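*** Backbone structure tokens ***
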Amino acid sequence: MDIKYDLSSYTRVLKLASTPSWEEFSRIALIAGAGILLIGIVGFLIFTVMSFLPGGV
């Protein structure tokens, strides 16, 4: 393991990284929130269906 090479790789990545603009951040947050909401709805629907089936939860 070459520590000097690893540190130079990490610093190169940090120099290339930039803070997202507010528009980009809000778009990413909206898409992530929609994904979380969709997974929650699917889980709730599965729970509801399993509750009505015989031998369910």
Summary: Helices lie at 3-16, 22-52. The chain has a mean pLDDT of 89.
